[in-house]
């Protein structure tokens, strides 16, 4: 469960989050909104890259904003970025293993291999990340986000630029993250088919404010959402 109250982030004269309120319970939850709405800024606050001017964030009863950013990974925050973070010259195994901060020895090895197996895609743990296809590399990013007992998984446009066949596989993987890990998963993406397929609940940001939240199908039919997100056209 995550509860966000009056969250405000300013970069000089730009207010990226403007008193944002949000509540997500469990499962895969969507966070959508037009370019510049503040979605990545929200992830940056959760993961400790950005310090908000005001507001609070409680996750599973813990005050995230009071937690030193280097403790948040151990607490269980994982995220992917819009740019790939895995190191091309290292193996898939090493790329996943490096995000572990708590486990050691055989338990760590088993967990890393389980994360790689979970994302599938025919990826060998020994393969160098640089030798993989774009879709496989994206799966490695997801494997890094599900390793090490996450409690909160943040996925920032994981399907951007992927062909349909690879998006289809990724869709199944993302859908299964809560069952595999128990983590609340927040998906930011502009692909409304993906959001509809995996998110039970979706919230919409516009100019740093929450303008809608609820069951995904209902939210995507909301007139304010359609207006904010795609002019007056239908979302899907
Ligand atoms: N480091 C920064 N310095 C100044 N302004 C920033 C910074 N990071 C983000 N912004 C501004 O904050 C606003 C929100 O940006 P953010 O990247 O969070 O939006 P977004 O919803 O993730 O957009 P997109 O869908 O394009 O990724 C934008 O106006 C952006 O230009």
TrEMBL record:
GO MF assignments: ATP binding; ATP hydrolysis activity
Domain ABC transporter intervals: 2-232
Organism: Trebonia kvetii
Record's keyword annotation contains Nucleotide-binding: yes
The UniProt record lists the keyword ATP-binding: yes
Cellular component terms per the entry's GO annotation: plasma membrane
Annotated protein name in UniProt: ABC transporter ATP-binding protein
Sorted UniProt keywords: ATP-binding, Nucleotide-binding, Transport
PANTHER family: ABC TRANSPORTER ATP-BINDING PROTEIN, CONSERVED COMPONENT OF ABC TRANSPORTER FOR NATURAL AMINO ACIDS-RELATED
């Amino acid at each position: 469960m995550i509860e966000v109250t009056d969250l405000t982030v300013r970069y000089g004269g730009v207010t990226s989050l403007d008193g944002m309120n949000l509540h997500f319970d469990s499962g895969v939850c969507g966070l959508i909104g037009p370019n510049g709405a503040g979605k990545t800024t929200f992830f940056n606050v959760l993961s400790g890259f950005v310090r908000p001017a005001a507001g609070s964030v409680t996750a599973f009863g813990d005050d995230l904003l009071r937690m030193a950013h280097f403790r948040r990974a151990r607490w269980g925050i994982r995220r992917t970025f819009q740019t790939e973070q895995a190191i091309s010259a290292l193996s898939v195994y090493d790329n996943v293993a490096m995000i572990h901060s708590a486990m050691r020895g055989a338990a760590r090895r088993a967990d890393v291999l389980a994360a790689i197996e979970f994302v599938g895609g025919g990826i060998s743990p020994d393969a160098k990340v640089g030798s993989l296809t774009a879709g496989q590399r994206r799966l490695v990013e997801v494997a890094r986000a599900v390793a090490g007992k996450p409690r909160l998984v943040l996925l920032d446009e994981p399907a951007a630029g992927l062909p349909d066949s690879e998006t289809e596989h990724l869709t199944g993987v993302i859908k299964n993250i809560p069952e595999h890990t128990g983590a609340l998963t927040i998906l930011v993406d502009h692909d409304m088919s993906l959001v509809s397929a995996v998110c039970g609940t979706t919230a919409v940001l516009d100019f740093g404010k929450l303008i809608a939240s609820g069951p995904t199908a209902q939210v995507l039919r909301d007139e304010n959402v359609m207006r904010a997100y795609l002019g007056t056209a239908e979302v899907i």
